């Protein structure tokens, strides 16, 4: 009796189950239906990560050797954060918020403003300064109060009172050195 049951059990295993060979047609979503979420959910998850693209306000501060700080503000659409950071690899992050990044960098040159409108001159107190425009008419860009002025001969003093046009960074350094008191006391 034990042998018959075993044969029936083995014979039952060999039978193939019925299979359904009918196929359903699969529909892929078209472009219009992709604009709506495929799975709708009533639950929302709060996150600090915004979906791409990300809109950022980017502020760039360039610090020039003549004391001028030029600030440029732009709005950028960020598709890839790796590309964004690579674009500003020469800059230092001053501050960062979710929708704003402030970069700064030191520029080893005088500013375009000084190249275009800069003059060395004397302030009312007799200090050497860089003016935006002619001394007496333009505003002071940078004053060199810690730099004592050598006693000037009348020709040199007259040059500074009229203003010495700044031509380049080398000229800027040359004039600054020329009028600075470098003699040991």
Automatic annotation (TrEMBL):
Residues 108-180 form the Bypass of forespore C C-terminal domain. It comes from the Bacteria. InterPro entries: BofC_C, BofC_C_sf, BOFC_N, BOFC_N_sf. Residues 57-105 form the Bypass-of-forespore C N-terminal domain. This is BofC C-terminal domain-containing protein.
